[in-house]
Amino acid sequence: MTGSNPPCMFEMRPSPGCGYGLYATQDIPQGTLLLRETPVIQIKTEDVEPLDEVDVALAKVLPTLSPTDRDAFHALSRAGRDSDEALDIFNSNAFEVQVDGMDRLALFLTGSRFNHSCAPNVNRDWDPDEQCMSFYAICDVKQGEELCTFYARPLETYAERQRYLTTLGFVCHCSRCDPGEEEGERERLRAESDARVLEYQSMEDALEGHKETDADRARQSVSDMERLVTEEFGPYGVANLFLRGVYAMGREVGLCPCVWDKEYTRHYTERELEMIVICQGDGALAQSYRRFLGS
Ligand SMILES: [Zn+2]
């Protein structure tokens, strides 16, 4: 589904510590499509070994851009400190995508300006057939708030997130990484957040086994993961994106031979559908869920 681009609901402004960012110019309800954009550069990373040779591929692509696009590329923020300016810009701004099951890095002149947050209010949804990215507000956003997506997986610990973000050349100071007012409180809140994330990760790992052999523990894990995600992301108002994953696991648990519970499956499928509409729009995927529920 291509569709037309929505009216612009954000503007670019300086973002403290992050160069520039995109800020809402109006109140935006959850589920709103913010932007649909085709990448200006795509590099097939599976053809590029070692990955350091992205610079070689980039050097071939840049001269093929129009002068306007090339200027816009060089105006993007640069977090890294490599000597190669173009490579720094690309690494700081490209998103991983897949086409025909193959990994690529894709750079967007507008979408790449969404900064990272570990409590993101913007989801990305890549359409491999149309090769375009849609960006959705996953919660209600107030006028003046920064719109942020994520580069590091939010469901990792503080240290894991920062380790990955360091490879992109920056340190995250989002509200989850720097919570609270004072150092002591910050350490305590980070430790509590990490404990929730680690508990979630171990439940997610164990669920694969429980789904096959232990229906009660599988069901318990799904409700515990829902609680953990709500506790971790609810205070930032961005739990929807992560609940979508938990509800998908609930649906899978309901369909497992050792559980096989139609009502349970239906309950989680309905809730997953609500989250899909918010985080990925009411498109072909949502329709396929409605067909499943109607059958
Ligand atoms: Zn962060």
From TrEMBL:
Q: What is this protein called?
A: SET domain-containing protein
Record domain SET: where: 8-152
Q: Which CDD domains match?
A: SET_SMYD
What SUPFAM superfamilies does the annotation carry? SET domain
- Check the record and name the InterPro entries matching this protein: SET_dom, SET_dom_sf, SET_domain_protein
**Which superkingdom?**
Eukaryota
Extract the SMART domains matched here: SET
